[in-house]
Amino acid sequence: MEGPARILVVDDTDQNRRLMDAVLSPHGYAVLGASSGPEALERIAAEPVDLVLLDIVMPEMSGYDVCRKLRADPATSVLPIIMLTSSGDQDKVSAIEAGADDFIGRPFNPPELLARVRSLLRIKHYHDTIQTQAGELADLNRTLEGRVQAQVDELERLSRLRRFLSPQLADVIVSSDDESMLKSHRREITVVFCDLRGFTAFSETAEPEEVMGVLGEFHTELGQLVFEFEGTLERFAGDALMIFFNDPFPCPDPPLRAVQMSLKMQERVADLSTRWRKRGHELALGIGIAVGYATLGRIGFEGRFDYGAVGSVVNLAARLCAEAQGGQILLAPTAYAALEDKVQANAIGPLSLKGFHRPIPAYVVSNLV
C-alpha cells in the first residue's frame, strides 16, 4: 500500500470526528472528515479513500442511505465501510443489509476500532493488488494475443512464400515485411524447365501408388537442389518443374547457377533411375534452359496465389526441355552466349520448336569448364 491509508470519518458531530482523528492519526492513517452524507459522497468522488467510518444518524441523509449509494456505484462497490452505531442488534442488522462490512458500537473501544480498521484495510489491499494484477494480466493477454496473431500471420505469409521461393528468400521477405517485390514487374531471368522422359508411358501402366511414390522421390531430390541453389520454384506439374533465377531477388551469374543446378539434378536423377530400373521403370531427365526478359509477379486470387513468369523465354525453355533426350541439358542461344567460356557444350539443330517461327539453335551441355 503506497502512502498512508486514507480514512474518511463521516459524522455530523465535530467532536466525534476529532476523537476519531486522535485515535487513528498516531497510527499512521490520514484522517479526512465529512459532516454529512452528501459531503461524504462528494469527497469520495473527488479523491481516493481507502476506508469509511460512517455514522448512522445524520441529518439530510442517514448512514444507511450513504452506504447504499456507495454500494450502488461500481467505483465504490467494494470500498470498506464501518458503521458506527449507538443502539443494539437492529442497527447492526440494518447496517449489514445496507452493505456495511463491519460495525462498532458507541462508546467504542480504541484497540477494537484499530483492529477492525487494520483488518478491512488489509482486505482492501489484497483486493487492490488482485485488481492491479488482473489489469496487468489483461494487458499482457492483449499483447500476447497481438503477438500470437502477428506470428500466425507471419507463418502464413512464410508458408505461402515457401511454396515458390527458397526458404532463404522467403525468410528475407517475411523479416523485412515487404512484399512489394512480388508485384508485377519486368526483368531478365534464366528459366530452367525439366521433366522425366518415359513418364507418360510409365504412368499409364504402373499402379497409382507406384506413380506417386516415384514422383515423391523425384520432387524431394530436385526440390532440395532448387532450394540449395536459391532458385524460385514457379510450379510443380506432375513430372515437370519450372525454376527461374534472378527474381524476385537478383543473383550473381544466373545462367551459371542454372547450369550448376541442372548438372546436379541429372546426377540425382541418374541415381534414382538406377533404383527405378530395378523396379522395371525406365525414366530419365530432360532439361531446357533459356535466358531472356519476362514479366513476373504474383498471380492468382485471394486464398490461392502463385508467383509466376510470363514471356517467350518461358516457352523457349519448355520447348527445349521437350526436345531434350534423357540425361541432356539443352541451352538456348542466349543462355549459351552467357556461358560460352564456362561450360563444355556441343551445338545441335537448328530445332523447329512449337510456337517459334524460325528454327532455334541449341547446345547440349556436357560439363562445366
Q: Please, could you describe this protein's structure?
A:
By secondary structure, the chain is of the alpha/beta class. The protein folds into two domains: about 5-135, 3-Layer(aba) Sandwich (Rossmann fold), CATH 3.40.50; about 180-369, Nucleotide cyclase, GGDEF domain (Alpha-Beta Plaits), CATH 3.30.70.1230. It is built from eleven helices and 13 strands. It has helices spanning about 15-25, 35-45, 65-70, 90-100, 110-160, 165-175, 200-205, 210-230, 255-280, 310-325, 335-340; strands at about 5-10, 30-35, 50-55, 80-85, 100-105, 185-195, 230-235, 240-245, 285-300, 305-310, 330, 345-350, 360-369. The strands form two sheets. Strands 6, 7, 8, 9, 10, 11, 12 and 13 form an eight-stranded mixed sheet that branches. Strands 2-1-3-4-5 form a five-stranded parallel sheet, with helices on both faces. Strand 9 and strand 10 form a beta hairpin. The longest helix is centred in the middle third of the chain and has 52 residues, at about 110-160. It is rod-shaped and about 120 Å long.
Mean pLDDT: 88
Rg over CA atoms? 42 Å
CATH class wording of the largest domain = Alpha Beta
Structural domain count: 2
The SSE order reads: EHEHEHEHEHHEHHEEHEEHEHEE
Give the distance, in angstroms, between the N- and C-terminal Cα atoms.
80 Å
CATH architecture of the largest domain: 2-Layer Sandwich
Q: With helices defined by DSSP (H or I, 4 residues minimum), what is the helix count?
A: 11
Q: In percent, how helical is the residue content?
A: 40-55%
CATH superfamily of the largest domain: Nucleotide cyclase, GGDEF domain
Strand content: 25-35%
Number of strands: 13
**Helical/strand content category:** alpha/beta
Q: Tell me, what's the shape? A: rod-shaped
Taking the sheet with the most strands, its summary is: 8 strands, mixed
Q: Are there runs of 5+ residues with pLDDT below 50, and where? A: none
